[in-house]
Specification:
The structure is a single chain. The strands form 4 sheets. Strands 5-2-1-6-7-8 form a 6-stranded parallel beta sheet. Strands 9-10-11 form a 3-stranded antiparallel beta sheet, with helices on one face. It contains 16 helices and 13 strands. By secondary structure, the protein is an alpha/beta fold. Helix content is 39%, strand content 14%. The protein folds into 2 domains: 8-207 and 330-381, Crotonobetainyl-coa:carnitine coa-transferase, domain 1 (Rossmann fold); 235-316, formyl-coa transferase, domain 3. Helix 6 (167-190) packs across helix 7.
Length: 382
Amino acid sequence: MRPLAGITVVELGHSVAAPYAGLILADLGARVIKVENPNGGDYARGWGPPFWKDTASSFLCLNRGKDGITVDFAREEEARALKRLIIEEADAVIQNLRPGILERFDLTVTSLRAQKPALIWCDIGAFGDSGPLSAKPGYDPLAQAASGIMSVTGEGDRPPVRVGVSLIDMGSGMWTVIGLLASLLERAATGQGAHVSTSLYETGLAWMTVPLAAYGASGKVGRPYGSGIAEIVPYQAFHASDGWLMIAAGNDNLFRKLCRALELVGLAEAPEYATNPARVVNRDSLLPRIAAAVAKHTVDALSRMLDEAGVPNSPLLTVDQVANHQQTDALGMLAACAGDELKLAGIPLSFGAERPRSTRGAPGLGEHNSQWKKTGGNDNAK
């Protein structure tokens, strides 16, 4: 499945957000041309160890399936050539460069869409294009801090922690793809492109939809509950005799099943625990009793018991366990690129039973420069 075959996207991006958007589009069949500075390229090339064949694994997993060219914006002829490439070949541009860089070289949405109205231009910013923080630089952990995500993550009596993956960067890339795909549909109807924009801060606010609604409804500032959440109890990890097990008794019926499995039937009948609102209010007295019952069992034994009882649960797995898990293998989420052995994650989409995926590895710095020159992408080639 290559639903975006025939679409060309120029990625003026670095780090995670724009490259992840480009990765999604490449897996969906688009030709993605990654543009890098010839002096070192994308910062993520050096994000290590670990390295794989002298390139950081972070870069390899975010940039497979793309063409790679280098452009020195300081050289007028190269900036002109890039502009011509966009005008002549690109359906869309994705960019997350520092504000002001592209303006210096007239590589802006206004300039380029004036020459090519069908162009779809996608900006990924830090704090949005208006407001008192609009000029402030931003990175994933800053946006996690500023949007409140870190305030509801971790444990309230311990130092703050960030979500362990680049949730906001990758989420911003996903929103960019959603906006780009919507714009392709609109362009098919009108012939006109669009200016799509998102930011790390806006993405963080979107992920805070539930906590923000809770504050609006109650006027109270919620606190973090570790592996649990504020609105449902019990819905968190408990320590068994040999490890951790996540238990998600997300409604009253599941709570009753959990109590039967743990031989705590009286808890399900007690008015202070019979309903989820009551359990939320009385979580501090309830959770220790569940924890004591869980601690009597091993993770595997309790997981089997809860599976049989119909209570959703999962052991807390480490990265190596996830990578080698039978379920991961069955879904085909990890696969090596052509000519390589390093297995990298695909996108979590299937069409029918087929997962779209580019099998080419990440490009070397400037790997496709000669191809670009042959197609007229450089003034010096003419």
